[in-house]
Amino acid sequence: MSLFNVCHWWSAQCPDLDENYDVASLLCARFGLEDQEKDYIVVGSHTGQLSIFYPSYEQDANGNAVGYKATDLLLEIQGEQPILGVYAGRFSANNRKENANQLALLHPNSLAIYNIIHVSGVAEHGAQLSLKLIGEYRFQRTAFSFCKGHFGKVKGREFFCVVHLDGSLTFFEQDGISYECKFPGHRALPTPVVYCERTDCFFRLASAWNLECYTYQDLSHSSINKSYYQPIWSVCLGEGILDMNVVQVKSDYSSLMILGEHNFICLTDTGKVEFILKLDYAPKCFHSFVVGYYWEPTARLITIIVSESSKVFIYENANIIWAAQFKHESPVAIRRSNIMGLPGGIVTLSPTGKLRIGYLGSDPYIFQVPPLNMEELTFQQAHDEFMQLEQEIKEATDIQDMQAINEKAYADVHIEFVIEQNTNDDADTMLLDIPAHVTLKDLPVCSGRLKWHTKCDLSELQVVFNLPDGIKCSQDSLTYTDIKADTKETMELDFYTCDLLHIPTARVEAIVSFISTKGIPRVIQKTSFLPLNMFFKTRQPQKSAAIKLTFNVNSTEESSVKLTNYFSEFVSWESDIQALGLVLLTTADESQEEVITIVAAKNSNRIRIQSDYLETFPLILERLMEKSLEMQNKTTSSKKTQKLHNILQATPFIPAQPILHRIDVHHETQENIRKQTLELDELWQKFKDLQRKLQEKSDDEPKETLVMQIEENYDHLIAEGDKLMEMRKDELRQRCDLSCALVVAKIIISCLNLEEKIIKVVCSVLTTPTEDWTELSWEESMAAGIDMLHHYGPLNRSKNANTQNNMIDATASHNTFDYPRFRKHFATFFDRIVRLASNDTKQQQLASSSSIMEIKTESQAVAQKAEIEAKPDINTETWHDILSVKPMQSTTGAVKRLKPFQKSSTLEAVEDDEEDADDDAEDLRKMGYKKEYGCKEKRDDNESEWLNEDFKLPSSEELFSDLGIWW
Question: To pair with 447 at 20 to 30 A between CA atoms, which of 84, 215, 216, 732?
Fold first, then answer.
């Protein structure tokens, strides 16, 4: 803050109280109404209000300044048209007085010239002014600004020029002659135009931020003979300007003062740069004037610049000589004026029409020591205040008991988030701003509602919705401030499809973050699911499919799975169908339908989901998982949440080949984008080199070849940029496809018969949704976790002590991303999960069979075993007969290696034959386990044929110990 302030001398309020004033609304001028008169202050607003003030300085009996008096306002009228600017000059040819000036008011479609008539006051009443219209000039185009001067160096008369919004000029002479002209170039911006009397030239800022100079002779002749003309000189400013004016400091040249957005520039009328002053503040308006006369050697060029922070900087040429502070808001216009009683006063006009006159000086600053608070503070009061502060600090910083903190946050702000399961097909596409290619498919729209209720005062609250790609909400993020306690708000929401993408999840999260009055931030959230009929509609079930997944639902009440419990949008409550076919609606490819089939067994708790497209599974699997957990939690009286793999068990099979296929396509697109970006950088560098060569060439050298190369390079650059935009669109679609594949893998792994800690570790690596960054792709960000899974943690193949050193050496040897290595580890990652789940299932079967043998005799056990092997599974056969599909056979050993993904291939687990067993044995030898290792006579019947070096069945921790987590 400046030590000096602009001292207050006089102020008045203009009749218009809104922000309808700008830099052209203030004028300080003399009209020759009386002898030894001072400056009149004229203010015009955009609403047509015109006020003329004549400030006077008087003191009362105590020597204090009286300030504004009613007699200071000489004229106040309300016009019919907005006033864009007020100007004074000798605009009439009939004026015989040498010092008499006329008042010009610029309106949007006309220019009015008035004579000011002075009417003397009677008795104590002051004088007043009246306006007499002497001419009005109308024009067809809307006006922007005004310029006046002795065009053509005519003495005794001033002509004027109007700048229109389209950049054209209209000249008016006092003899009734008027003509129009336009500046050369493709376009002309409506920028201020100023006139220099010494050189008879006009200055304007072109659209390329070049300051151009045109002679009046060229402009006037161009309107007569339509001749083509060029500026006599041009200077590149490199930025937009706020205002400019011309002052004559020396007899041999005039100075053009320009206030830019970041710089203050001074040029001579011949185009020579005198100085450039870089401003470290945001300027708002300025005024330049000369102290003395230009023919005197002691003449000084003074400039006043006002910043956005209400500070005044006064410069002499490029040197700052004074700085002061306004005590009020920053003005939009500033002038220097000689007023009665105050020569050289600073006149300012605020955006709301507050007119002030001040002067530079300093007010005395009297510091008064505040009185000491001698009130005695008791120990109990100090202790209470200390405990209160300590409690506030503890509430804001203590995070040890997160459960209590979260419960308090949910108690402070109660939220209810519900999404209706009914959809609306008659959505207003224009209101929801749905793209045209999505509107053609007539996709359903669902409604929702969010209610929040505050129990305490809040300083700020923000609501944000976390949506999957391709889905939008009618309400964006909303922010509330200064919320009182017991405030309620209900938000009506609409969820709709904004892009044709594969949706990986139907989960919608409403995240509410708020800050208490003590500055403590908290975040709470509620989750709801979009209805499936937004994305699917019924179709005839398919009898065969490439990808088949089988799940066993552990239900306590019902003996069989009913589709109506899971897919109530498509199956009515009284229906007992066992097969349901759904087709995905959000597909961009119209040539093929992506159909998924759900089959429920009649007499068992098994359910099969099959489709040729992996992207159709996530929403169905998510619904199956959520409904199973919901029904199980309703039936059990215990408050403890059931684990997913105890409720929903999946067959040990993961469609690894389709997932790897999505990763391959995604990686290939990323590589193409990188190559395209490098090619664009090369083309852009070549484009800049050609432009540089074109600028370096002189006017005498031919430029046609370079211009042709630049145009060809530019067209190539635009074409390659469009290609990159298409790649970005493909990248978004493939990212969604990859997210769908990862969601399927995570749900299957969560439903496998594995230890809970293994499931958490493995699912934490497969993060969704898929994200790509400029410096790092999804594959590169995932490589570290997959690489750790391959050497450490629950997926480790060996328990060698040198594994960590080997891992460090392996990662250090690869400075660049090795995609084949990452893909190989990813494939092995799924293979080991399936094998571990199969081995755990086999161990459970062996444990159950051994317990039965202890209770029954050997003969009964053999007979029972034979009976079980001979008896067919009626439930399974009935279940497979529904669609006449081949049963999915699970294996107890390793899963057969799959060929590259093809839509016609079957991706279910098959039985091992001799060739597959040999392949598995070879694969396990690489992992450190050998088949039939050791003495056969020492082996027990209960022991598996897969042994390690200690002749023991490998445990789950020996097979799985990756991810950098040690148990």
Answer: 732
* pLDDT for residue 815 is more than 80: no
How far is residue 542 from each of residues 560, 609, 618, measured CA to CA in Å?
22, 11, 18
Tokens matching residue 118:
């002075």
- Helices vs. strands in the chain: H and E counts, helices first: 17, 44
Return the minimum-mean-pLDDT range out of 2-16, 33-47, 862-876. Answer: 862-876
Dist CA 946 CA 917 (whole Å): 12
Residue type, 614: L
534-to-94, 510, 598, 603, 621 alpha-carbon distances in Å? 80, 19, 18, 31, 16
Q: Residue 345: pLDDT above 60?
A: yes
- DSSP symbols for 385-403: HHHHHHHHHHHHH--S-HH
Structure tokens at 355: 């007119």
Query: Whole-angstrom Cα distance, residue 301 to residue 292?
Result: 9
The mean-pLDDT minimum among 374-388, 452-466, 597-611 falls in 374-388
Tokens, residue 374: 């001698």
Confidence at 967, pLDDT banded by 50, 70, 90: very low
Provide the 8-state DSSP code for 405.
Answer: H
Backbone angles phi, psi at 690, to 5 degrees: -65, -40
CA 181 to chain centre: 44
Percent helix, strand and coil across the chain, each rounded to 5? 30, 30, 40
User: Do 527 and 508 contact (CB within 8 A), yes or no?
Assistant: yes
| Span between the terminal Cα atoms of the chain, in Å | 62
8 Å CB contact between 102 and 135: no
Q: What is the pLDDT of residues 134-168, one digit of tens each?
A: 888 888 889 999 998 888 888 777 888 999 988 88
DSSP state of 945: S
Structure tokens at 330: 């920053």
User: What radius of gyration do the chain's Cα atoms show?
Assistant: 42
Burial 796-828, CB ≥16 within 10 A → b, else e: bbeeeeeeeeebeeeeeeeeeeebeebbebbbb
Between residues 163 and 95, which one has the greater pLDDT? 163
**Residues comprising the chain, all counted:** 967
Beta-strand pair 507-516/521-529: antiparallel
Looking at residue 557, its pLDDT comes to: 56
Query: Which sign, positive or negative, has the C-alpha torsion 626, 632, 634, 640?
Result: negative
- 285 φ/ψ angles, rounded to the nearest 5 degrees: -155, 170
Q: What is the pLDDT of residues 108-122, one digit of tens each?
A: 999 999 999 888 776
Residue spans of alpha helices (H) in 102-229: 216-225
Q: What pLDDT score does 510 carry?
A: 93
Closest CA to 529 of 596, 603, 478, 467: 467
Distance between CA 890 and CA 837 in Å, rounded? 11
Peptide bond into 769 cis (omega under 30): yes
Q: How confident is the model at residue 181 (pLDDT cuts 50, 70, 90)?
A: confident
Q: pLDDT above 70 covers what percent of the chain?
A: 78
DSSP, res 145? E
Helices (H), 428-578: 429-432, 436-439
Q: Which residues contact 151 (CB under 8 A, 6 or more apart)?
A: 159, 161, 171, 173, 195, 200, 216
DSSP 801: T
Q: DSSP code of 888?
A: P
